[in-house]
Amino acid sequence: MFDDSYKTIAKPAEGSYSEKRSKFLAYAFPVQNEQEVKQRLAEIQKKHWDARHHCYAYILGPHKDAYRLNDNGEPSGTAGRPIYGQLLSKDLTNTLVIVVRYFGGIKLGVSGLQNAYKVAAREALDAAVIEERTIQETYRVTFEYVKMNDIMQILKDPEVQVLDRQSYMQCIYTISVRQRDADRITNALRKVPMTEVVAL
């Protein structure tokens, strides 16, 4: 059985950390794509326009195949990587964490910075509600109206969600199916005569 679920955060959350008069304000956001990442970054940069650094890391996709870390002017590896490390430790994806630093006049050194960004990011993620979600696949099912009962018996499955339905002499349904159950459901549908199933 392959894994078709992933963890993300349900809604935005915040955290903070102070070290030698430097303030680190952390913001965690659920995001679906890089466009949303850019929007959230722009919001935080506008809100904290007077801060010296806006460092961040994000992971996208159910298989965590897209990610980025940014030190935003801090020494290399001292900000983006510790933030990214907290996302990994919570096993999260589709999540962005931005940590804003207000410099307090005292340098923290490499290890001090790494710790500060790590703790601030962890504070925000600890405050977040973490959800487990499943990977869904979408299909268009076209069938003759006379086969409605046969089709509906299959679509009653708890792992199937009907997104859209058009019922005429020829019916067209759009359904969402949990990935691990997709073959089982679509094979059952294809066994109904005069039925076409197309992945969307």
Protein architecture, described:
With 200 residues, the protein is of the alpha+beta class. 30% of the residues lie in helices and 38% in strands. It has five helices and eleven strands, in the order βββαββαβαββαββαβ. It has a five-stranded antiparallel β-sheet with strand order 2-3-6-4-5, with helices on both faces. The chain has a four-stranded antiparallel β-sheet with strand order 9-10-8-11, covered by helices on one side. It has a two-stranded antiparallel sheet with strand order 1-7. It is elongated, with a radius of gyration of 23 Å. The mean pLDDT is 93.
User: Helices and strands: which structural class?
Assistant: alpha+beta
What is the CA–CA distance across the termini?
Answer: 24 Å
Q: Please state the average pLDDT score.
A: 93
Characterize the main sheet.
5 strands, antiparallel
Which stretches of 5+ consecutive residues score pLDDT under 50?
none
C-alpha geometry: elongated
The number of helical segments is 5
Helix content: 25-40%
Order of helices and strands: EEEHEEHEHEEHEEHE
How many beta-strand segments? Answer: 11
- What's the arrangement of strands in the largest beta sheet? 2-3-6-4-5
Query: β content, as a range?
Result: 35-45%
Radius of gyration from the CA trace?
23 Å
Topology (SSEs and partners):
Layout: E1 5-9, E2 13-19, E3 22-30, H1 34-47, E4 53-60, E5 66-70, H2 80-89, E6 95-102, H3 109-127, E7 130-134, E8 136-144, H4 148-155, E9 160-166, E10 170-178, H5 182-190, E11 195-199
Antiparallel strand pairs: 1-7, 2-3, 3-6, 4-5, 4-6, 8-10, 8-11, 9-10
Helix pairs in contact: 2-3
